[in-house]
Design brief:
Blueprint lengths: L8 E3 L2 E3 L3 E2 L6 E4 L13 E7 L2 E7 L10 E9 L7 E10 L5 E6 L7 E8 L2 E2 L3 E4 L8 E7 L10 H7 L6 E4 L14 H7 L12 H12 L2 H9 L1 E4 L10 E2 L2 E2 L4 H4 L2 H15 L14 E5 L3 E5 L13 H7 L3 H11 L10 H16 L4 E6 L17 H10 L3 H7 L15 H13 L5 E5 L5 E7 L5 E7 L13 H4 L1 H10 L4 E5 L4 E8 L2 E9 L6 E15 L2 E4 L3
Parallel strand pairs: 5-15, 13-14, 14-15, 19-20, 20-21, 21-23
Antiparallel strand pairs: 1-2, 3-27, 4-27, 5-6, 6-9, 7-8, 7-10, 10-11, 10-12, 13-25, 16-17, 18-19, 22-23, 22-24, 25-26, 26-27, 27-28
Helix pairs in contact: 1-4, 3-6, 7-11, 9-12
């Protein structure tokens, strides 16, 4: 990475308080690889879900023409070096059509904090070589993560994956969800995919088990995806698009039972394909109970949470809200009673209890940091009033591309949250989470968040004004941001500036430049570098550091350095 100097960040002329920010981007040109793995291992290899003495390794063999009920034996090998001159362990596993010919093995009896190399063999063919890393144990001075989300195939090339694949100083890649997208070619991203020659397979919206398998296969066939997975260890959580847009416990915004069948059937198919195609351990109980934790020596505990399918209540939609808010009393009732309904869940009791035990153990062990891998924006963000800035023509244009556009502009007049699908739509559940962390002694909390395709640096503050930690939001690998310049009829920059100026908890916000967060956590402070690329429309791209923040521990809480 190119080391570059700093300047104060500006968004549409509005100064944003940041610990440190980049100069005009000093870029490093790259060309991402243009060849995928060949032969029967055409979907590459991957590893993930590390422990101090274990890791999951994954591949798939292409046997699409195999007879029903047939199977194949795949040999795996583990070595201390990439040349495999020192093979530590080997074994074999059987796969078949029942798991879509995917292969997943849990390696055990490994050494903590150690890099290993692995490969698979079937017949006379060998897979690409992968690299994995176990969790460290004992005293460590730092841990480093690449944090990313939202890899929508038709919107562009996975150059962010390519950039991460080139690094050898990353302990793990934290993928915050939307690893795949469910839409068909006539849906979100369809026009962009047609222009780039990156159209979704299958062509229709995915609903069945075969559909979800084919979509995962398409994403895993991408060469930049293969490069990243082979080079890095993955810690993954899902968001909504691994099943369907704005999913919740009993349904999804993008699921219509009248013509797409029962939600439970679709959800079950999506999760089966996810567990087949991802290098993750599967829960012992219900498949939706996908929450885990990772301890990095005496430094930090990473909690990977689930906010979609276990307990989430149905979300509010702008159109429904506008139709029910006729008077000032209606607005006040919604804000104080309906929105704050205590029954509106996010995590559920089983997950909350698990997190409380995990965070308490981290605090008791003397670890200075708690890192939360989280899908959706946790900070409070109120929508600025957009009506003075939007003409009727602007609103019509927005409505043509987003069926909630007109309602969104109407809601913006009322001082309500920007995103009801985020934690803002479940404020009582957010307060319960904050209370749980506080009672467990979980100071030093850093939350990393995906979903919005936008860069964020936020203070996390409870309803009593007490700081609970900081939030870092990653942009996307490819998906476009609602805070980009072209949004709202070209008024996206003004929308961004208004959002920052009217929300004290938002320190930095930008919808420009896709990328990932390079998060390095030390004993006394953490450094978050927002690493960007300048295009996803070509495999030739430039990489640069967009902005950087330092996070310190102060009075027990994690705070940005200028707090």
């Amino acid at each position: 990475m190119t080391k570059i100097t700093r300047r104060n960040a500006l968004i549409s002329g509005l100064a944003i308080s940041a610990a440190s920010c980049s100069k005009e981007p000093a870029t490093t040109p790259h060309n991402s690889p243009n060849q995928s793995a060949g032969g029967i291992f055409s979907h590459g290899v991957a590893s993930g879900d590390p422990g101090p003495d274990s890791a999951v390794i994954w591949t798939r063999i292409s046997q699409d023409e195999a007879a029903p009920g047939s199977s194949a034996t795949v040999i795996w090998e583990l070595a201390a070096d990439k040349d495999f001159s020192d093979i530590i362990a080997k074994g074999e596993t059987i796969t078949g059509a029942s798991r879509d010919w995917t292969v997943k093995t849990l390696l055990t009896d490994l050494e903590p904090g150690t890099v290993y190399f692995y490969r698979f063999r079937s017949g006379d063919q060998s897979s690409p070589i992968g690299r994995t890393r176990t969790l460290p144990a004992g005293k460590i001075d730092s841990a480093r993560f690449a944090v990313l989300s939202c890899t929508n195939f038709p919107f562009g090339y996975f150059n962010v994956y390519d950039q991460i694949a080139r690094r050898d100083d990353i302990d793990a890649v934290i993928h915050l969800g939307d690893y795949i997208y469910e839409y068909g070619r006539d849906g979100y991203g369809g026009k962009a995919g047609a222009a780039l020659g990156r159209e979704h397979e299958p062509a229709h919206e995915i609903i069945t088990l075969d559909d979800y398998r084919r979509r995962h296969a398409q994403y895993k066939a991408d060469p930049s995806s293969q490069a990243m997975h082979a080079a890095q260890t993955l810690i993954a959580i899902w968001d909504d698009h691994e099943t369907s847009n704005n999913s919740w416990k009993d349904g999804a915004e993008n699921h219509q039972p009248e013509n797409e069948g029962e939600w439970e059937v679709r959800r079950r198919a999506a999760l089966q394909a996810y567990y087949e195609w991802m290098p993750v351990r599967e829960p012992a109980g219900a498949p939706e109970a996908f929450f885990r934790s990772y301890s990095y020596g005496d430094l930090l505990t990473l909690c990977a949470i689930e906010t979609r399918l276990m307990a989430r209540a149905r979300g509010f939609e702008y159109g429904e809200i506008v139709s029910n808010l006729k008077t000032d009393d209606d607005v006040a009732h919604f804000k104080t009673e309906i929105l704050w309904d205590q029954s509106r869940e996010m995590l559920g009791s089983a997950q909350t209890d698990y997190l409380a035990r995990t965070i308490r153990q981290s605090a008791d062990d003397g670890q200075p940091w708690r890192l939360i891998a989280n899908q959706i924006i946790m900070a409070k963000v109120t929508t600025p009033d957009l009506s003075p800035y939007m003409t009727e023509q602007d609103i019509d244009a927005l409505q043509a591309t987003w069926d909630q556009g007109r309602a969104f502009v109407e809601v913006s007049k009322l001082g309500l949250p920007t995103n009801f699908d985020a934690w803002d739509g479940y404020p009582a559940a957010r307060e319960r989470f904050y209370d749980m962390v506080r009672e467990a002694g979980g100071d030093g909390m850093i939350v990393v968040t995906g979903d919005t395709h936008t860069w964020w640096a936020n203070d996390l503050v409870d309803r009593n004004g007490e700081r609970r930690g900081v939030e870092l939001g990653a942009h996307s690998v490819t998906s476009p941001s609602p805070y980009r310049k072209g949004f709202l009829g070209g008024k996206g920059s003004e929308y961004t500036a208004l959002t920052v100026s009217e929300n004290d908890d938002v320190r930095y916000l930008s919808g420009e430049d896709h990328g990932y967060i390079d998060l390095e956590i030390g004993r006394e402070s953490a450094k978050a570098r927002f690493m960007a690329i300048d295009t996803v429309e070509s495999r030739d791209y430039n990489a640069f550091e967009k902005v950087a923040f330092t996070i310190n521990r102060a009075d027990g809480a994690a705070k940005f350095s200028d707090s």
